[in-house]
Specification:
One of its GO terms (molecular function) is magnesium ion transmembrane transporter activity. The protein is of the alpha+beta class. The protein has helices spanning 93-97, 167-174, 178-187, 190-199, 202-209, 214-223, 226-235, 238-246, 250-259, 262-272, 279-282, 296-303, 336-341, 365-374, 395-402, 407-410; strands at residues 8-9, 17-19, 25-35, 44-51, 57-61, 65-68, 73-75, 91-92, 101-104, 110-120, 126-134, 146-150, 154-155, 289-290, 315-319, 330-335, 379-383, 389-394. The strands form 3 sheets. Strands 1, 2, 3, 4, 5, 6, 7, 8, 9, 10, 11, 12 and 13 form a 13-stranded mixed sheet that branches. It has a 3-stranded mixed sheet with strand order 14-15-16. Helix 3 packs across helix 5 (202-209), helix 5 (202-209) crosses helix 7 and helix 14 crosses helix 15 (395-402). It is elongated and about 75 Å long.
């Protein structure tokens, strides 16, 4: 690794793409594994935890890392695809070492670790050589003083903490897609997972829960106080919330529904009333619904909402009032491709696709799949007998129900490096193979 920087700050490695010698990307860096034996022995970096395409996490020894630069990591290309399993003698640098409280021996100042620097020793091993820590803020100061010191100048690096914080790990998680953050949380030791879940905001926790397996969802939600659990459920999409509540004990489910806002709870209850794996149970009751006298400019403004998934942003559902589901009479859909081709002042009532028969809520998942495939759609309307729009079923909803149980755990998933770190921000300016 002669062309690599002499020192690398590991928090900047998270998310960097990893390439083989042919220039093909094989995954992304999600963590580093270190052996932290005692205060007297310099911690040795054993390897990288890579997330290869499909969410599978594997271990790559540092001996197979050939180069690290500001934008990517290179390996020899020889990868063992067995799922990474942490050993009891190992420490995850991002997942467990960040936010650990340490003390500078000379001054007695304490702070939390927000980054660590690693470099190659004379024997070619990679070792942790620098510790970046931040003291608690004092008075009106928002941030405490930061220090970058030699590893031997701090105490507490090898100590496990029962009440370790999660501030700097959260920073790393918040820069990831929800699915990637969910994978990291799934892999965390139980005590760190608890700290992270407690510190995550309700909206972000809801996003992550939607990407976790049912077992993880139930475990995390059950550990929350009822008031907070209800708040998190309100932030989830109604169909995901309904699926999760259905996995809870009946008494717990009823208690949480009573704590939720009435409108949010009503949507969830309605979805739970449908037979499992039907269009009604899979649909979202919150698609983009507009009246026929809305303009194309208004429609496009609604479809630009950042909270919409690509499938929900693919079309507008046009109905008579009321526009909350169940709506007035469903008239048809306006596809985004058509909206982009027409003058902004045109009324969407004039660009409707009303030739397709909408789906009924009792349609099974095979019927939904056939419908979407037949008409080359990523979303479709679901209406009742009277022609009122109940919601929309999307291809991502369908895939969640078509894939085998536990697929999130079993399936494989899919920066820069400065000379001095700033607290866990981007720089300014299974097993052993």
């Amino acid at each position: 690794m002669s062309s690599s920087p002499s020192r690398v700050y590991v928090a900047r490695l998270v998310g960097l793409p990893v390439f083989d010698p042919q220039g093909e990307q094989v995954g992304k860096v999600r963590d580093l594994v270190a052996a932290v034996r005692s205060e007297e022995h310099q911690p040795r970096v054993l390897g990288l935890v890579l997330e290869v395409f499909g969410r599978r996490r594997i271990f790559v020894p540092m001996t197979r890392v050939t180069n690290v630069d500001a934008e990517r990591v290179y390996t020899t290309g020889l990868l063992n695809m067995r799922r990474f399993e942490q050993r009891s003698t190992e420490t995850l640098v991002i997942g467990q070492m960040l936010d650990r409280t340490v003390t500078i021996k000379e001054t007695g100042a304490s702070g939390v670790v927000y980054d660590v620097g690693m470099e190659q020793a004379r024997n070619r091993d990679w070792v942790i050589s620098r510790i970046a820590l931040q003291e608690p803020g004092k008075g009106l100061r928002r941030r405490g003083q930061t220090h970058v010191v030699e590893w031997r100048d701090v105490e507490g690096l090898s100590r496990r903490e029962a009440a370790q914080g999660a501030t700097h790990l959260l920073h790393a998680l918040n820069e990831m897609r929800a699915a990637d953050a969910a994978t990291m949380i799934h892999e965390l030791p139980p005590e760190r997972r608890t700290a992270v879940v407690s510190a995550l905001g309700d909206e972000r926790l809801a996003e992550v829960l939607e990407e976790l397996s049912e077992d993880d969802q139930v475990e995390i939600l059950s550990a929350l106080e009822d008031e907070r659990a209800a708040d998190v459920l309100e932030e989830m999409s109604p169909d995901d919330a309904a699926d999760l509540i259905a996995e809870l004990p009946p008494d717990t489910a009823q208690a949480l529904l009573e704590l939720m806002e009435p409108e949010e709870a009503e949507d969830v209850k309605r979805l739970m009333s449908y037979v499992e794996d039907t269009a009604g149970a899979m649909m979202t009751p919150e698609p983009v619904v507009l009246a026929p006298d809305a303009t194309i400019a208004e429609a496009l403004a609604h479809l630009r909402r950042p909270d919409l998934t690509p499938s929900l942003a693919s079309q507008v559902y046009v109905c008579r009032t009321p526009l909350e589901t169940p709506t007035g009479k469903f008239l048809g859909v306006a596809h985004i491709q058509r909206l982009l081709r027409e003058p902004p002042s045109t009324l969407i009532g004039g660009v409707l696709d009303d030739e397709m028969e909408p789906m009924r809520p009792e349609a099974g998942k095979d019927d939904v799949a056939a419908y979407l495939a037949t008409y080359n759609l990523v979303a479709a309307a679901v209406v009742d007998e009277a022609g009122h729009l109940l919601g929309a079923v999307t291809v991502d909803d369908l895939l969640d129900h078509l894939l085998p149980e536990g697929w999130r755990d079993a399936a494989p998933r899919r920066g820069s490096i400065p000379t001095a770190p700033t607290p866990l921000g981007r720089p300014q300016g299974g097993r052993r193979g």
